[in-house]
Amino acid sequence: MRRTLTLVGLAAVPLAVLGVFFVLPVAGMISEGFYVDGQLDVGAVVEVLTRPRTVRVVWFTVWSALAGTALSLLLGVPAAHLLHRRRFPGRSALRAALLVPFVLPTVVVGVAFRELIGEAGPLGFLGFDGSAAAIVAGLAFFNVAVVIRAVGAAWESLDPRPAEAAAALGAGPAHVFRTVTLPALRPAIVSAASVVFLFCATAFGVVLTLGGLRYSSVETEIYLLTTNLLDLQAAAALSIVQLLAIVALLAITSRLRAVADPTLARTTARPPRIGRGDWPSVAATALVLLLVGLPVTALVVGSLHAGGGWSLDNYRALTTEGSRQALLVPATTALVTSLRTAVDATWMSLTLGVLVAVVVSRRSHSRTERRARGLLDGLFMLPLGVSAVTLGFGFLITLDEPPLDLRDNPLLVPIAQALVALPLVVRTLAPALGGIDDRQRQAAASLGAGPVRTFATVDLPVLWKPLLAAAGFAFAVSLGEFGATSFLAREENPTLPIVIFHLIGHPGAMNYGMALAASVVLAATTAVVMLAVERLRVPSLGAL
Fold first, then answer.
1. What is the distance between the alpha carbons of residues 152 and 236, in angstroms, rounded to a whole number?
2. pLDDT for the residue numbered 323
3. What digits encode the pLDDT tens for the residues 118-169?
4. φ and ψ at residue 481, rounded to 5 degrees
5. How is 418-463 classified by DSSP, letter by letter?
6. How far apart are CA 200 and CA 253, in angstroms?
7. Do 22 and 381 meet the contact criterion of CB atoms below 8 Å apart?
8. pLDDT band at 73 (very low <50, low <70, confident <90, very high)
9. CA 199 to CA 544: how far, in whole Å?
10. Cβ(472)–Cβ(490) under 8 Å?
């Protein structure tokens, strides 16, 4: 009974937050889609889903997500081999650098690719500006790090002896990989692919900035239906379909992740140096570096050009409202708002994340308790199954009337961003807590330590590094969050990603130069946070 009451007590606050800021918005969204003037109208939803444009949008979402996943796997798997199974100078720095794109703001990546492949860009001659190929490249830019981390962690855990035995019997490298290594890695690869597909299908900023008027995903279509066409019912119908599809995919991903969890101890053998047979891995890693490095380099170079020469004028202009009053507040003010919002979102997500991680990671003493913890784990992961755009839209239509009229509350944006970051925080903390021997807690309790003292003396020494890593991830995710914030941020109090999007939407060389400079500032801030997280060596991406 005491264990049950403790479980309920720890889960009470996160469940209450989930109910108010997740279940209620989703329920309101469903009501908006299925009910017209208080009457159930399923036909209206069917009408929205059978529109020719809706069919095209859904098809492009699925096609681009599949293409982005395939490209991420094609580059990420061999790069994981080089970065996790081979030894060379600078390997740690390279692994850290390739982690940064995963949390870069989506609008920044969109601006960087436009600067690279635009008509005046270094690769403008390729004609990729406004094309589906640019969108797929942008999706792979984000998600190749997920593949490298997830597959690389599994690769490091493999016992090398079966492959060595096959090679000793005369099998070539390709045959060893196909018959021994690949079957062992298949669960991790499939799990990583499902997670990447989920991220690609819910991409927002990349499609919005690179797709132009020609391409639209479900995410951007919801945004356009809400902000431009004011067709809330159609937006709600699309959100419902997306919610069901992503939750189903999330359930599959969870099962695959359970299968893919390494069961072997990580080998302590020192990895060999790069050999002649590693050229496919070297080539794939070089392509990954080009995919990541070229847009970022083009962004930085472009931000330093103004008035036909090298200049810092674009950065100096960040203290202004741009040409023709493009902004209501300067970009520097928006940066302060982003930092303040990220701090709030971080402490919120950490507070909830620690409680959730403690609940789902404790060892169960009965089948009922185990099922309860599994149910709670699934409930707390639900925000990962809802895109940020859908979440922001749900906030927009449900939290605007008493007694929950929060539209003017300054904490509404941090709350939305905290929910977006919560699954990543939990997946960073739960494995660390789950790895603690429960007998240590029992010994502390038998010596008279209460629950708080036990947590402080047993759990906290193990948890502090993952806790700092989770804080870094939450802070970085909040800095770059664009989907939910685009619905909720007030025009006079925008975050920096919102300002960047407004600047690229207003004509004028000064506004575009400011967008480039603001993107560099935001990307550099995020990169510094993520490089600090990488030094903690907590495999957060692999835990997804």
1. 39
2. 84
3. 888 888 888 888 888 999 999 999 889 889 988 888 887 777 778 778 778 7
4. -65, 130
5. HHHHHHHHHHHHHHHHHTS-HHHHHHHHHTT--HHHHIIIIIHHHH
6. 14
7. no
8. very high
9. 11
10. no
Cα separations in angstroms, 14 against 27, 74, 350, 531: 18, 39, 11, 30
Q: Are 233 and 32 in contact (CB under 8 A)?
A: yes
Q: For the domain covering 2-263+280-543, report its CATH number.
A: 1.10.3720.10
Q: What angle do CA 197, 523, 119 make, to 5 degrees?
A: 80
Binning the chain into helix, strand and coil, the percentages to the nearest 5 are 75, 5, 20
Report CA-CA distances (Å) from 370 to 4, 257, 261, 362, 438: 11, 18, 19, 9, 15
Are 222 and 397 in contact, with CB atoms under 8 Å apart?
A: no
Residue 265 pLDDT: 45
Report the pLDDT averaged over residues 378-385. 70
Q: Which H/E stretch holds residue 289?
A: helix 279-303
- State yes or no: pLDDT of 384 exceeds 70: no
- Among 49-53, 262-266, 521-525, which stretch is predicted with the lowest mean pLDDT? 262-266
Residue 329 has pLDDT above 80, yes or no: yes
pLDDT of amino acid 264: 43
More confident residue, 543 or 180: 180
DSSP state, residue 87: B
Residue indicated by tokens 């804080």 = 471
Which amino acid does the sequence have at 215?
Y
Rounded distance between C-alpha atoms, residue 71 and residue 302, angstroms: 27
User: How many angstroms separate the CA atoms of 380 and 19, rounded?
Assistant: 10
Single out the residue of 103, 154, 199, 152 nearest to residue 532, CA to CA. Answer: 103
DSSP letters spanning 505-531: TS-SHHHHHHHHHHHHHHHHHHHHHHH
The CA–CA distances, whole Å, from 344 to 77, 348, 408, 417, 486 equal: 36, 6, 16, 9, 18
User: DSSP letters of 266-288?
Assistant: PP-SPPPBP-GGGHHHHHHHHHH
CB atoms inside a 10 Å sphere around CB 279: 11
The number of C-alpha atoms within 13 Å of 278 and in the hemisphere containing its C-beta is 17
Classified as helix, coil or strand, 305 is strand
192-215: pLDDT as tens digits = 888 888 888 888 888 888 886 678
Region 242-266: what's the mean pLDDT?
62
Q: How far apart are CA 224 and CA 534, in angstroms?
A: 37
CB 531 within 8 A of CB 473: no
Burial class (CB in 10 A: 0-12, 13-18, 19+), 22: buried
Q: Tell me the longest C-alpha to C-alpha distance in the chain.
A: 74
Nearest to 428 by CA among 475, 395, 487, 363: 475
